[in-house]
Amino acid sequence: MFNQLQGVAPDALLKLIVQYNQDQSTSKVDLGVGVYKDEKGNTPVMQAVTAAEHIILDNQQTKSYIGPAGSALYCELSTQLLFGKNHPVIKDRRLSVAQTPGGCGALRMAAEFINICSPGATIWVSTPTWVNHIPLLGEAGLQLKEYPYYNYETQSVDFAQMLQTLDSASEGDLVLLHGCCHNPSGADLSREQWQQVIALVLAKNLIPFIDIAYQGLGDGLEEDAYGLRMMAEAVPEMIVASSCSKNFGLYRERTGTIVIISANAERAAISSSQLFSIIRGHYSMPPAHGAAIVETILDSSALHGQWINELDVMRARLTDNRTALVASIKAAGAGRNFDFISAEKGMFSFLGINESQVNRLRDEYSIYMAGSSRINIAGIATHNVDYVARAIVEVL
Ligand code: LMR
Questions:
Q1: Whole-model pTM above 0.85?
Q2: Where among 299, 325, 340 does a domain terminate?
Q3: Which residues line ligand 1 (CB under 6 A)?
Q4: Is the predicted pLDDT of residue 10 greater than 90, yes or no?
């Protein structure tokens, strides 16, 4: 049976990790996969996380099963983080919530849920979108269609084209939106644009599906949830996938959340029963440790405050890196304007160079980034920013 299999290429982003690790150059720079890095290029464990782990170790009574939805406390607190404590969808008990193995687990369980509600439903994804959206949603049986999002010439959101394309969507289609810090472009919708998307979703009876993997790394925890919270106030049904990989630094703990908003509490109970049954049929129940860390932090005012302070430092570093990179590229004499990088949010921006220039940066300068020229802004540091800027100007 296995003899018939054809090999598949490794995921391009994950391959970059291997290539970078194998590179012996002392000046190598990793601008590839989206993990936060400090000034020394390390991805540290957040102090609030370490403190929470000590508390868990000292107090944990059992490692018995927790059920498909995961920890109830985690679900409650992560829902509050997303929507705010007093959001009407919480008060009206319209939510079905489950702790998932990372944001990917949430995305895939959402796709399976949609496929049960409406087999082969159409979901509109931004062009470009995070590469892993395609298999996570498509391999569950959803039909993917694309709406234009990022204009590589103006280096900004092509909002008119986005609206025009979504206007051709059919009633009941889903629209995947990035809650904040668009991956891979870093170009986010403004508040006014969110309002227009909400109006379109309502007018066309579309179902919004918001993937929010970077809450707190754009403008702030509350600010980054603006579109999600406004959308949830307006629409009868919606799906959210969130991740704790980036804002808690829990990449390998696989900690995420799926939230399904139904029209009322009665419908939500039915959605929950379906969701938990889907989870049971896929991985039975989620791993506990990451969620235990998150709930321990969010449930303690001291740890919560400490975590927010650490997140503030991370966000400020990303902003500073953007400013420093733009200034260094200018100083290196680029004939092109890169100011757009300063206006973008979160971990990523496109440099806007072609694939052979990306390859030259890798082969001649040991600077690693995705083939699309997406860079991880966190990989920039004081000691490498001028080197990176000069190399970019060289290959332009
Ligand atoms: C990225 O986009 O680099 C991250 O979300 C990591 C991943 O799994 O692709």
A1: yes
A2: 299
A3: 13, 33-34, 130, 132, 183
A4: no
